[in-house]
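Thread: zinc ion complex, take 2
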Amino acid sequence: MDEVLLREAGLRVTAPRLAVLEALHGHGHLDADQVLTAVRERLPQVSVQAVYDVLHALTGAGLLRRIEPAGHPSRYERRVGDNHHHVVCRSCGAIDDVDCTVGHAPCLVPSSTSGFSIETAEVTYWGLCPACRR
Ligand SMILES: [Zn+2]
Ligand SMILES: [Zn+2]
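Output below.
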């Protein structure tokens, strides 16, 4: 399954690439350190740089999406191409998905486009997660 995804994206199938995809399977939004920890359960010898290289390649190929909340480490996820947004806890950095408000990109219409043709809108909702509200 993941082998097919890699091949269709024009990427060679390698053990680190498969392990990174596996690490992100079913878990939303992991930062590079969390991905590294998960990958090392399968591939104890893998280097930090190798994991960063894989994250870069997979993101560039559109198999992963990188979210960069200001003041927090970048997160990676496998849910790509559906124009969803994120809610981020400003205290602990917890992150969750928010479905696209309209259902298609761009889901926000700017009041002025300055002549740009608008393709997508990335919305980050900031607040406090349930744990931090207590
Ligand atoms: Zn929190
Ligand atoms: Zn997401």
